[in-house]
Structures are given as structure tokens and as C-alpha cells.
Amino acid sequence: KPSHRFDPDFTRLVVENMGPKTTERHRVVLGALITHIHDFAREVELSVDEWMEGVKFVNALGEIYTKSNKTRNETHRICDVLGLESLVDEIAHKIIAEGDIDPTSSSILGPFWSPNAPFRELGGSIIQDGVPPNGRVTKMHGVIRDIITGRPIPGAVFDIWQASANGKYDFQDPDNQTPNNLRGKFRADADGKYTLYCLHPTAYSLPTDGPSWKLLCMMDRHPMRPAHIHIMVTHPEFQGCTTQLYPSDDQWLSTDTVFAVKDDLVVDFKPLEGDDKAVLELEYNVNLAPKGYKGKI
């Protein structure tokens, strides 16, 4: 009698059928993918009906993308819900410095970044359409520094975007927002400083329809993202940082539905007096590593 219920050579047969023109990286990635998928199917003894449900689920992801004029990337959202984007982001960007200052932690880009955000004057506002109901204007400022020298990085670009007080980004909300509302780029001054005005962020829910919502329901999970501000900080001589900042009093920090919260990204918004443009203040300094820097291996 065979010692295995399932053919022990089957997975090897599939992997080894890759031909000689397969690149080495494709062979590594696809070989591991096939092996893990086969191991998973055997471990749970996946039924034919369950497999077909998975096929229908994947098909539905593409159907949403097509029907929404390619503005709703449901497959991207599924990767977020499963923690895959946050994990890939950590693999790609995690650096532990050899000195006392680590680079600012990265976090997922998410689906709402835009390459078209305009440059705005230092000290300007990204609140293009006026303060929304229940919106709280925040003066945000800080210094962008080199982790090796501790010196400021003049000319670094601070790109910021956020949802409005209704939890929607500009292109989700054409009835209430014009393009590039709550988006902007700012160039740090000679001392590496940036200053701008934005809104205190608002928590919001992922869509409660479609495959991502079905998956969340299967796992008995909520769809909420904690309030956050997106930033992307770049300079030609430094490794860029794309991340999100979260108010420390947000109720969803420990159960963020896309698992993107990290300790150094949790911030305190403080009451601000003497500024007729804002009621809150957020100081946040950004630390960048020089290009090519690997840190501790």
C-alpha cells in the first residue's frame, strides 16, 4: 500500500514542468506559489465545490474592476484585507538603522494616491473646497532629516492626501469635492521644514458590498479603517517613504481592517491657540535613509 493518500510526486511534476526559458526569479516565485497552493489544498482537503467558489470569487474581483470603469480595484482591496499588501510593504521597505535613528516606518500606499496632486506653497492649505461640516483644521509641520547625519534635507518633497470629513477621497466624491481637494505637494525649505494646513482625519469603512465585504463577513471582521493621513516623502538622494499617520485616540487602531498601523505612525493632535486658520496642531518629523543604505542585516 502507498504511504500517502495523495500522490507524493504530483507537485514536483507540476513544478518541474517549467521549461528552460523560465527565468530564475519566475522559477523561484511560481515554484513556491504552486507548492504552497498544493499544500494548502491537501491540508484542508479542499472540495470541488469550495474550489469552484474560489474561482467565482476571483472572477467577481475582475468584474467589479471592469464595471466601475477601473476606479475600484477590488483585488487590491482583498490583498489589503488579508494583510498581504502590508506584509509585502514590510519586506520591501523595512530598515533597521545601525545608528540611533531608524527611518520612518512605511505603510501601504492604498488605492487612492494620485500623481496629479499640485505643488502648493509652504504654509498653504490642501483644503481646496472649504472646511466641510464637522471638519477640524490642523496645522501640520515638521522637519525631514537624514538618519545618518541627523541633518535636515532641503528640497525634500512632502506629498499629502486624505479623505474628507465624510470619509471619501476627491474622486469618490464628485458631488462634494473638486479634483485634488485635500491633496498637495510641499517642498521643504533650507532647514528641511514643511508646514501646511489639512483636516484632522476621519475613520471610514471599506465598501460593504462585493467580494471584499463577503470575505470580511466570513471572518466576522469589521470593515473600518482608523482615521489616517497619507504622506509620501521623496528626495533624489534618499529612499522615499510612503506611509500613513493615525490619531492616537482612534478606536480602530488595534483592529485596522488592512493591518497597516505601526507604533511610530500613531500621533497626537494637540489643541492650537493663536492661529486663526486652525484649531489643532500636529508636529511630525520624517527620517529618511540615503539611497543604497541597507542598515543592519
From TrEMBL:
Pfam entry (one): Dioxygenase_C
Keyword Oxidoreductase attributed: yes
Highest taxon of the lineage: Eukaryota
Iron keyword on record: yes
Protein keywords: Dioxygenase, Iron, Metal-binding, Oxidoreductase
Domain Catechol dioxygenase N-terminal span(s) in chain numbering: 24-94
Boundaries of every Intradiol ring-cleavage dioxygenases domain copy: 109-289
Cofactor: Fe(3+)
InterPro entries (alphabetical): Catechol_dOase_N, Intradiol_dOase_C, Intradiol_dOase_core, Intradiol_RC_Dioxygenase
GO molecular function: catechol 1,2-dioxygenase activity; ferric iron binding
Protein name per its UniProtKB record: Intradiol ring-cleavage dioxygenase
